[in-house]
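Late entry, written up from scratch paper. The run itself happened at the end of the previous shift, but nothing got recorded in the book at the time, so transcribing now.
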Amino acid sequence: MSLRDMVGPYVRLAGRDNLTPSRALQQSSSDSPTDAIIRLEKLTGFYSQVEGDHQGFQDSSKKLRAFDRADHEGVFVVQPIKGTEAEAKRREIVQLQRKSEQILRDEDERLLKDDDMITGHNAELRAKIRALQNQQEGVRTQISFLTASHPESTAPSNADWHELAEIFPQINTDRLTQVATFHQRIRTHLAAQAEDETLRLQAVDQALTSQIRDLSHQLIKERSSARLPRALLDQYSQIQVQIRNVDLALRQHERRSELAAQAEQAKEALSQTQAGVLPEIQSLINTRLEELAHALEEANPPKLTFNNYDSYTFNVPGDDGTGTAYTSMVMLDQAILSITELPFLIHDTPVWANISKPRQSRILCYLANMPKQSFFALDATGALSAEAQKVVAAHTVISLDADEESLFGYITSMPADERPTFGIPSHRLPRFRRKRQGKSGSDGQLEFNFDELD
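Output as recorded:
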């Protein structure tokens, strides 16, 4: 993890989007809670326990986003289908294939009547096609028979023989049940065999369809195109294009479903791994927050709660005041600073402006003895406690104020690319004179004399 990623959330400067206490772990509003939690795990040394699942989650999510972005930007040759359309598209392919086969079959029948088109090789191809078609009809008949003849699989019981026993009291219903159960087992076994045979025959049917199509294509290619109607060729070609497009759309849909399933599995794996890690981090930080709350005389300590790998809350239970929220954010940053490898933190005036002076005083006095550096920007120190004012006076690095206390200055009315910046006291900033251009009386440019700095 780079230094920038490490300290980013804890450099809270005016104008940055990380000044909201409720999302104190995030660098900005666009920074996801997932990334913020992973970053905290890296800081606390727990990341090695979730690294594998996190990388898997990132990779699968990246692939899914890339697929969806390609779809959104129109990269695909055909428009991907929605999940509810998949079955309809599969039926459409079957219908188009049958229509294509029917065109070939009709044309074959027509050409069979044309003696001029019959050659030895073509006759052999047609004979093979006819034999395969006859074989396919037999296979489909067997499939229909097996589908219609699956036996019932309800197991009988003694209750089924109640009416019969009333008529024939001496009848052995247990024996009848045993016999019927035996027959039912036979029927169940036969049904399983019938189902296996049906699947085998369906595979044979698909193979025969493929062979018939290949031989039919070969036959068409070997015929004289002059003898084939142009309209027929166009119609057949259009159907083949439709089949390819629908098939491509289906394969894209299946790929998207596969990527979504992989992303969901990776998400679940990460969630389960995080469930064993986040409670430890939560306990570690909340324990430190309780210690800080006691040292800073806060009535209630703030609480960090991880709801999942991608969600957390941070607040003071029962106190939603602004001052409390910003005080809690300072405490959270200090807690993380003290228990992790975070080297320093920075809090600009917008953080401190929302905290009361008594709270500021207690925080400054407490942090004066901390081993790591915390950089603060305070807009005023007069209302701080006497002890806090001594701490500020002893640790002030830069003081910005009137006269000799100014550090930087520039002229805002000048163009940015021409604007000089001065590292000098404010009372010595050079004066500017405005020159007039021509007789029109219009304002001219500013004139600056660098000699005034000497």
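The chain has a mean pLDDT of 79.
(Scratch paper discarded after transcription.)
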